[in-house]
Design goal:
about 425 residues; mainly alpha; Growth Hormone, Chain: A; 18 helices
Length: about 425
């Protein structure tokens, strides 16, 4: 039975609103943990690391649930979970004495919400991509590239909204986030079309097939280098900028420059990737990110003044962002080809979970290596190595994935149900 189509603007608008709500609240968690609860930097890092792992580490579970119960239902459950998480954050601060355990529960619930609705949204985007009319030989940006653009726009708007509300207190920020996700959930309940209510045999048998596909497991493991590299925008690069006099301003400007680059270059790079093919796009993306860490290593070793350090970090950030813009949408677009006729939720989930595990372990190693004064480039060299491996291995895996006929791609039966 064919699944009903979902309008692409609804899906892209959902990603925009998801990120506005997320980035209006989550960037201020560290401030609340230090100011209201008096935690040390190490303790703050532990709490935020738990939140990240609750989201990235459970993407596979969210993908399997999307395959089993339908993407629509799991997306709505994810919205409800994030509402509960933000409301719990507010409740922890409204208690007579700020309740740290309750606040930690709230951060975990926000992560679980993302682990539910993000794989479901990817399933719907993959289905919408498969239904797009043929471009007639012209290259065009994939819907996953558009998803990146709308998500980045939300990541720019969200902190501005949160900062504007923060003057009234973090409780107002958290409750506003909860209200936004409530509105998103109610909208999606109407906007996302319900599909067949029964599970198909292929759905029941394919829920964990991603783990039994050794080629896709290998692809997911080596592609995890991309997410590890991109997350260094939040760890390794700010640590390098911390050596400068005005580190806060330089860090803010770096993030702004990455957002501008993403909004300006994501679609042109995606069109180029469509022309040259997945193997070349992946290899180029990984190579650009690896080069970024090479620049960072040289800067860590040779830079002597603030201007030189900032210049090296900004060039590195631009190369890493460009590499991610090429590699990530390309990898996401390949997932339905690996899955073939199977539901795609667990495949998207496994890809994200491998990246989350890599970030968790890689950040610990990168953070430790960055404290080696004798080898200032050690962390950058460590981060470049997985990208070099990925540049060699992943394109070979991608090249072996046959592109199925469009009629075979469309529909992912059972993927959108309620």
């Amino acid at each position: 039975m064919r699944i009903p189509p979902t309008r692409t603007p609804v899906l892209l608008g959902t990603q925009l609103l998801f990120n506005v709500g997320f980035y209006a609240v989550v960037p201020f968690l560290a401030l609340v943990l230090t100011r209201d609860f008096g935690l040390t930097a190490l303790a703050v890092g532990l709490v935020l690391g738990i939140r990240t792992f609750a989201q990235q580490g459970l993407f596979l579970v969210g993908g399997v649930l999307a395959d089993r119960f339908g993407a629509r239902r799991v997306i709505l459950l994810g919205c409800a979970m994030r509402v509960a998480g933000f409301a719990t954050l507010a409740a922890a601060l409204l208690a007579p004495t700020p309740a740290l355990p309750l606040f930690v529960v709230g951060t975990v619930l926000t992560g679980l919400g993302g682990a539910l609705f993000s794989p479901g949204l990817n399933v719907l985007i993959a289905d919408a991509e498969a239904r797009r009319p043929d471009a007639g030989g012209r290259s065009r940006a994939s819907l996953f590239a558009w998803l990146s653009v709308t998500g980045e726009l939300g990541a720019v708007i969200g902190p501005l909204v949160g900062a504007a509300l923060l003057g009234s207190g973090f409780v107002v920020v958290a409750l506003s986030g909860a209200a936004l996700f409530t509105a998103i959930g109610l909208f999606l309940r109407v906007a996302l079309p319900p599909g067949p209510g029964r599970r198909t045999a292929r759905t029941r048998g394919g829920a964990w097939r991603s783990l039994r596909d050794r080629r896709f497991v290998g692809f997911s493991v080596v592609h995890a280098a991309d997410l590890l590299a991109y997350n260094q925008l939040y760890l390794a690069l700010p640590l390098h900028l911390a050596r400068t006099t005005d580190a806060a301003a330089a860090t803010a400007l770096m993030f702004a420059s990455v957002s501008v680059l993403t909004l300006a270059l994501q679609l042109p790079l995606s069109r180029w990737a469509g022309r040259v093919g997945a193997a070349v796009a992946l290899r180029t993306g990984y190579a650009l990110s690896a080069t970024g860490f090479g620049v960072l290593a040289v800067g860590a070793t040779a830079a002597t003044g603030d201007a030189a350090v900032v210049s090296a970090v900004f060039v590195s950030a631009g190369l890493i962002a460009a590499g991610h813009m090429l590699a990530n949408p390309t990898a996401l677009a390949l997932v339905p080809r690996f899955a073939a006729a199977l539901p795609t939720g667990s495949f998207f989930g496994l890809l994200a979970t491998c990246g989350g595990v890599a970030v968790l372990g890689g950040n610990l190693v990168s953070g430790a290596l960055s404290t080696w004064p004798a080898v200032p480039a050690a962390a950058a060299a460590f981060l470049a190595l997985p990208l070099v491996v990925a540049a060699v291995a992943t394109p070979r895996l991608a090249a072996r994935v046959a592109s199925p006929p469009r009629s075979a791609q469309a529909p992912f039966e059972g993927a959108v149900r309620d």
